[in-house]
Write a structure and sequence with these properties.
The strands form two sheets. Strands 4-3-6-7 form a four-stranded antiparallel β-sheet. The protein has a three-stranded mixed β-sheet with strand order 1-2-5, with no helix packed on it. It is an alpha+beta fold and 180 residues long.
Amino acid sequence: MASVIRVLALLVATMAMVLQVSNATVYKVGDSAGWTTMGNVNYKEWAATKTFRVGDVIKFAYNAQFHNVLRVTHAMYRSCNASVPLESFSTGNDSITIKTKGHHFFLCGVPGHCQAGQKVDINVRNVSTAPTPSALPSPTAITAKTPAPSSNMAAPHKFVKGQSALLGLTIATLAFFVSS
């Protein structure tokens, strides 16, 4: 009986991880241009078009011979001060998972690059993935304006590649332990 409880706990933990990963979005800073001083990328404008959430991944892609990524304070961001960063990254392909809401400030520490605009403020607002009850339309508005779903309308899925396999493996493991 104790092994069944452990397996169920493992299943619940695995499902929680799958659901958390499936809701995360990966954002490549600067989109196709990446993290650079070339091409006049406006990182402030880029960030303003995104809705960042806790759990999202911010990916910095750049040539590591010419750039880096420093996480800094707001004051350091404003003044382009790279002297004592909170964190530094230099692989050229850095992925940073956002763990808290609020502002996350990044800049390039190569002299002159931040002053040239190579800095970004990732602002994670307190955004819910589901609308609040007060934001939902009244039931009469839904029935009056919404057509009945057809059989060819499937709900969208946000499965990341490999999650189906992970879920299958988890269920197979549970079945194995329960049958033992």
